[in-house]
Amino acid sequence: MESALSLEPSSLRDSTNPPASVPPSPKAAAAKAAAAARAAEGRALVESTKAYTDEDVAQSWRHLTVVILAIAAFTSVAALAPYWPVRLAAAVVDGLLIVRLFIVYHDFMHGAILRGSRAAKLILSVYGVLVMAPPRVWKETHNYHHAHTAQIVGSHIGSFPVVTVEMWKKMRGVDRLKYRIVRHPLTILFGYVPIFMIGMCVNSLRKSVVRYWDSAVALAVNWGMTAVLIWQFGLATAFFAYILPLMVATAAGGYLFYAQHNFPDMALQPRHEWTYAKAALESSSFMPMGPVMQWFTGNIGFHHVHHLNPQIPFYRLPETMASMKELQSPGQTSLKPWDVWKCLSLKLWDPTANKMVGYP
């Protein structure tokens, strides 16, 4: 996902750094040493998580097979059940199952599970096309997101854009409107079109049709399947068996992704203090859930652990957090209505207050 905003004010550029020929002041030298120490500490922490990156290949295949079979079963019920309440319930569960399969796809794209498997690549590439998160653009934008978490500049690539209060004051009216639209709750709720169809597929094709050919395939497949299902089986069947599950999945996925990086306790570091590990632990949330939702969301609530080391398989994230005390005091949010409202009300970063705030 990449929004239409690309904002880099002069206050965030490196033009304020002294020329290389000017000897650094004692204060600058001390700051540089402190930054190096923080980076070294972060690298050591990441290194300590490598013990949890070992994959159980049989378990990975089991997770993939079970969720695919479950999707097939609930899609059939949504398509064929005689009563609409049953079809509706089946469609909602189907949508949540699509979220779980997305976590499997997500981990495969990170190289955390089923590494080097051609069969898994084929299955999950087809899945990526079906949910309009085609492999090429998803991998590029998501890897960028991981490498630049909690940075203001470039935050629109692979994530929801974030600007500071001062940047907001200087933005043109049209850019403010774009920013409001991208971060609006309705954009997340109906993310099927604005986030995935447009943000993921259409925007990538605007850059290069040749490079992002699988985005064109994703659009053609989704539009074609919708048309064929309506034509052959009627609007109701197309809606319950295909359109509604995708809408549920993209809305749930869009909100999870939003809340994982837009929550009350999050912190964004100034560029000179930013480190990969600090960003993972302070700008990615922990979202405790009950066992059912934790299963449907594939442990993605342990998001700070995942950002620290995306090579950890999703089914080992709880174990990793429980085993490392450095990971046990993250910023938290939840799926409770009050916490959802608080997350959605956060719009701008206020560096003075060191927290996310609403619009002025």
Question: What report would you give on this structure?
Answer:
By secondary structure, the chain is an all-alpha fold. It has one domain. Helices cover 60% and strands 2% of the residues. The protein has a two-stranded antiparallel ribbon. β1 and β2 form a beta hairpin. α3 crosses α4 (118-130), α3 (84-110) packs across α11 (235-259) and α10 runs antiparallel to α11 (235-259). It starts with 25 loop residues before the first helix and ends with a strand.
Main sheet specs:
2 strands, antiparallel
Tell me the strand percentage band.
Answer: under 5%
Low-pLDDT residue spans: 3-19
What is the count of helical runs?
16
In percent, how helical is the residue content?
55-70%
Which structural category fits the helices and strands? mainly alpha
**Total of domains:** 1
State the end-to-end distance: 26 Å
Which outline best applies?
Answer: globular
Average predicted local confidence, pLDDT = 89
Secondary-structure element order, N to C: HHHHHHHHHHHHHHHHEE
Number of strands: 2
Over all CA atoms, what is the radius of gyration? 21 Å
Strand order of the largest sheet: 1-2
Descriptive key words:
360 residues, mainly alpha, 16 helices, 2 strands, disordered N terminus
Please give the structural blueprint.
Layout lengths: L25 H23 L8 H24 L3 H27 L7 H13 L4 H13 L17 H6 L2 H10 L2 H5 L2 H16 L5 H21 L1 H25 L16 H7 L8 H6 L6 H6 L8 H7 L13 H8 L3 E3 L4 E3 L3
Antiparallel strand pairs: 1-2
Helix pairs in contact: 2-3, 2-11, 3-4, 3-11, 9-10, 10-11
